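User: What would this chain look like folded?
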Amino acid sequence: MSGVLGLVALAVLALGFFTAHGIARRFGQPIEALASAADQVGLGNFDVTLPVTSALEINQLTKRFGLMAEALREHQATNVDELLAGQQRLQAVLDSIDDGLLIIDRQGRLEHLNPVAQRQLGWDDSRTGSPLGEALQRPELDQQLHLILRGGSLERVPEDLHLEIDKENRVLTYSLTPVCRPDGQILGAVMVLHDVTEQRAFERVRSEFVLRASHELRTPVTGMHMAFGLLKERVKFPEESREGDLLDTIGEEMQRLTQLINDLLNFSRYQSGQQKLERSVCALDDLLERARVRHAQAAAAKQIELQLELGSPLPRIQADIAQLDRVMDNLLDNAIRHTPKNGNIRLQARRHGERVIVSVEDSGEGIAYSQQGRIFEPFVQVGRKKGGAGLGLALCKEIVQLHGGRMGVYSRPEHGTQFYMALPV
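Assistant: Here's the prediction, encoded as structure tokens.
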């Protein structure tokens, strides 16, 4: 009996072993193949092949896994095609832009430059991967770029880039703009280059011509003015006579001519860097109050309300008070000329961070949007009521920039105009 039971037990064990081995071969190998295929799909390889098994359940799972891999493969191919098409469109746009473009990554290294930038800088694609400041040999560019990549902004307009390309001196202006995701994360920056070599040469020639012409004109005009003064003292005409009116007109026009020559000289000095500031402690509340008093009579003649609004507290700044008085006089003269009867003008000053914002706001006819971009250019006059040579606002901008500040305008047609200057504290 014991022997029979032992033989039965051995038979059962053998049968169980062969049965388990068969089940393992039938289910284990397909499951291992599915696991391996899942790993491949996870790595991005959707071109997988699964074995066919006799087990119905495993076979159905294998088929569905194969369908899923095929769908993922088609979806990936579609996305890649769309991505490539989008990159090609973007590349075509970048290459067709008239200005030079430098694409910079988050670490401040060059990623791409379009053909215009290659011509402007005399570079090829070998410069990619280099830090911006090192590539342009301008270390200060790295500081500006890091400020932009941290979400900051430049305080003033960057200085021109002076480069020697193919034994020819070129002058380029540039701007730095961050590239951000919709959630605000900064991915890099774009540097836009604009060749202004011919423009700067023209401006230099124009400045030299204006400076020399003004000097040459000043001497004879001064002599004429003195001679006219002596003549007016000796020649007497009855009051309200035609001759007396003509003499007064000649005197006024000569005064305007003298002022125009002085403006030309001053503007040329500022542009050529010859004008220096005589800085002293400046109280902005006193500066604006003096300006209001000087123009109160002219405003009252047109029944214009001249308001003064000062933020508290206003810091004192280091500035050339006489030059800032000139800026305020020019802005207020323009405001009174363009403000209708019974209008109002507001003089405002307030602190904003490390800057002081001083503005002159009128209720006049405003400035057309198409003209606002040229409002600070020399010899440009906008609006319906023109006067002078168009140097006033250009001179104001030069004075403010020499103080380390910036000047701007905000205007809506038929809703008034606001000129403002931001001066460093």
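The first strand starts at residue 100 and ends at 105. If you want, I can go into more detail on any region.
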